[in-house]
Structures are given as C-alpha cells and as structure tokens.
C-alpha cells in the first residue's frame, strides 16, 4: 500500500508548523523552568508560591492586605494589627522577590562598572566595618528576610549572625540558603516579632537592620528592643526608609508618591529623615554617625526598578499563564501588578529626591550599663 503523495508546499507548511510548535514549547519551558532570579537563580518561575498561605486563600489574603494598607496613615490607629499584615505581605511577595530580585530584599547605590549583585554585596559588607563585626562576636540581623545580607556579613566578618523575621516561610527559605552556602554553622534564623524579641538582655555584641524597621508602627519600639538586647558598648547600624527634606505634604504628587510606596510595601507610615536621630537618643542610644547613603557620589539606587514595559508584560504574561494552568494560585497576577505599581512610585520618589531607602544611622549603647533612656518607649 502506497501513502498518498504530499505536495512540496504541504510538506513545507507542516515543517514550519512543527518548527513553530517546538519554538513555542522551548520558550514556554524557558519561561516556566529556567527563568529564575535576575541576581541569584534560587527560585524558578514554576516554584512561585504565596508563602504559607494555602492556594485557595491567596486572593482573600491579598484583598485583606490591600484593604488594610489602602490608607497607610490610618493604620497607625490599628498598629497592633500591623505585624500580622506585614507577615501576610511577605507571604505574598517573598517568592516573587526571590525570583526577580535575588536573596537580598533591599536597594543599594549604583556603582560604576559594578553589577547590581556586586553593589548589593558591597552595601551589605559596609555593615561589617561600621559595627566592627569580627570572629568571635555574635551579631543580630533585625528583619533578616531570606538572609542575603546575613550570609554576606557572616562570610565577610567571621561573626556568628542571628537573624529574626516575622515570617515563618522566610525562616525556611533562609535556612535552606544557609545550608546551600555552607554557612548554617555561622547563621541562625529565628521566627519572631522584632517589637518583642525572644532574646535575653545584653545578648549581642552588635546589631544591624537593612530597610526593615520601616515596618514598625513606632520606631522607638523596635529601637528600644534593639537597645535592650545589645551589650553595653555595642554598635547598631540601620538603613532607614524615610522622606527627605524635599518632601512637601502640600504637594499632591508628593503625597501620592509616598502613599504609593507605603501601600505597596506594608508600611504603616514613612518617617521624616530628621526624626530618626531623636528616636535613637530617646531610647538611650548615643548617635555616632548619620548620613544618607543615596546622595552623590552614589549612583541612583532606583535604576534597578526602571524595567521596560516589555519586561513587565513578559512577566505579566508569564504569571497569567501559570495562573490559568494552575501552576500558580489565583492572586499572583494581582500581587505582581501591585509590586509593579509600587516600583513606579519608588522610582518617582528617587527621581524627585523626596524619598531615600538608605538613610544610615550608626548608634552605640553606652558602656555605662546603668544608663537609662530619657523616657519610656
């Protein structure tokens, strides 16, 4: 029996269709299985979860989060609820951050001839010199996330670093990264609220927080806890998110930019730059140094956020496909859109100079162990 003769053009069309199908499958495979973090490929697109939130509750949790932080200034009146919603926020965003950002959830100044990854590492390692971290010391990371800074600081200093994060999912991710980096002997992660830390008084030789204390409803509460667990003479450095002296509360564009940052980053309300020193002194710290690390000669920290529309729609299509295929839970698309909108406000804040994520304050707990704070906090 002879097969019917296929005309040459029909064969050519079939070959084109097969080639197109193979390319489509290849592109889909690259999107779903190979496309990982821009900085450290520790998270693939197919592994995107919403932390410890069950798949059927993601959309509800996102709606509850958005309802709570829609008007950030009003959340101060319900400050006792803030930690729970910050926990929800990091359940929603941790995997997306790792996938697209890496293991360090913070900004850094752009440096000529330096990749974002290297600039991030140098920004973290600055902490080592500021607080004098060295072998034999125990250092506290306040708000450690998945532990990118912790591992850089432990490796650079030789110190033991203990991190605390409110999010249980991040604890698991951080511990997994610590093992992979063979730093689990130097790095420890604890789940807890940095407003009520589960550590004894005078437990740590030094401490740092990198863009984390902005989640506290009252900065004096977290600074007071850090003061308590720090040994007399110990140094603490923080990189704070603040509005600068250029911010004008009467300017609607300024207000929308700052509130957009607050809404999209689980912030109960950004503090003004000039307030930070007063809070540190109020709880008993001596202020050693204070400056904005984002100012020249540092390059723009927001350059990483200026992703093109093409990149955004590529990722948007990807998470939409994964949602339709039920690889990712419903709600991922909305979270991705929220983060993109937040990136727009952050970029605007940086370009106008009304916002900085790296106002650095270096403090010391007085050597006099009997030193008292000026007032209760």
UniProtKB/TrEMBL annotation:
Domain named SAM-dependent methyltransferase Erg6/SMT-type: residues: 89-366
Catalytic reactions on record: 24-methylidenelophenol + S-adenosyl-L-methionine = (Z)-24-ethylidenelophenol + S-adenosyl-L-homocysteine + H(+)
Enzyme Commission number, as recorded: 2.1.1.-
Residue ranges crossing the lipid bilayer per the database entry: 15-34
Any one GO biological process: methylation
Superkingdom: Eukaryota
Pathway, per record: Steroid biosynthesis; sterol biosynthesis
Span of the signal peptide: none
One GO molecular-function entry: 24-methylenesterol C-methyltransferase activity
Class in the EC hierarchy, top level: transferase
InterPro entries: Methyltransf_11, MeTrfase_SMT, SAM-dependent_MTases_sf, Sterol_MeTrfase_C
Key words of the record: Lipid biosynthesis, Lipid metabolism, Membrane, Methyltransferase, S-adenosyl-L-methionine, Steroid biosynthesis, Steroid metabolism, Sterol biosynthesis, Sterol metabolism, Transferase, Transmembrane, Transmembrane helix
Homology family: Belongs to the class I-like SAM-binding methyltransferase superfamily. Erg6/SMT family.
The protein's role, per its UniProt record: Catalyzes the methyl transfer from S-adenosyl-methionine to the methylene group of 24-methylene lophenol to form 24-ethylidene lophenol.
Name of the protein this chain belongs to: Methyltransferase
Source organism per UniProt: Vanilla planifolia
């Amino acid at each position: 029996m002879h097969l019917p003769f296929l005309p040459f053009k029909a064969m050519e069309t079939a070959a084109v269709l097969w080639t197109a199908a193979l390319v489509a499958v290849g592109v889909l495979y690259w999107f779903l299985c190979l496309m990982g973090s821009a900085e450290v490929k520790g998270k693939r697109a197919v592994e995107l979860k919403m932390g410890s939130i069950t798949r059927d509750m993601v959309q509800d949790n996102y709606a509850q989060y958005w309802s709570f932080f829609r008007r950030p200034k009003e959340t101060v009146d319900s400050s006792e609820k803030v930690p729970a919603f910050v926990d929800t926020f990091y359940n929603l965003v941790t995997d997306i951050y790792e996938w697209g950002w890496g293991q360090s959830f913070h900004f850094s100044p752009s440096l000529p001839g330096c990749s974002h990854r290297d600039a991030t590492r140098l920004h973290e390692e600055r902490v080592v010199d500021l607080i004098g971290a060295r072998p034999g010391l125990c250092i506290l990371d306040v708000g450690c996330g998945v532990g990118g800074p912790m591992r850089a600081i432990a490796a650079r200093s030789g110190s033991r670093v203990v991190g605390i994060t409110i999010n249980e999912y991040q604890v698991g991710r951080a511990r997994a990264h610590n093992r992979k980096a063979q730093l689990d002997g130097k790095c420890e992660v604890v789940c807890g609220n940095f407003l009520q830390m589960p550590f004894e008084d005078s437990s740590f030789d030094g401490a740092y927080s990198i863009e984390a204390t902005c989640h506290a409803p009252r900065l004096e509460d977290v600074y007071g806890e850090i003061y308590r667990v720090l040994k007399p003479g110990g140094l603490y450095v923080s990189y704070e998110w603040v509005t600068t002296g250029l911010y004008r509360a009467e300017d609607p564009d300024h207000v929308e930019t700052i509130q957009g940052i607050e809404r999209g980053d689980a912030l109960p309300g950004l503090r003004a730059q000039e307030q930070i020193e007063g809070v540190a002194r109020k709880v008993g710290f001596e202020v050693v140094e204070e400056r904005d690390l984002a100012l020249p000669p540092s390059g723009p920290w927001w350059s990483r956020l200026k992703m093109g529309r093409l990149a955004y729609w590529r990722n948007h299509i990807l998470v939409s496909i994964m949602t339709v295929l039920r690889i990712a839970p419903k709600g991922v698309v909305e979270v991705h859109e929220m983060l993109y909108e937040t990136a727009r406000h952050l970029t605007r804040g940086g370009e106008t100079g009304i916002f900085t994520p790296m106002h650095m304050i270096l403090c010391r707990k007085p050597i006099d162990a009997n030193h008292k704070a000026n007032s209760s906090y």
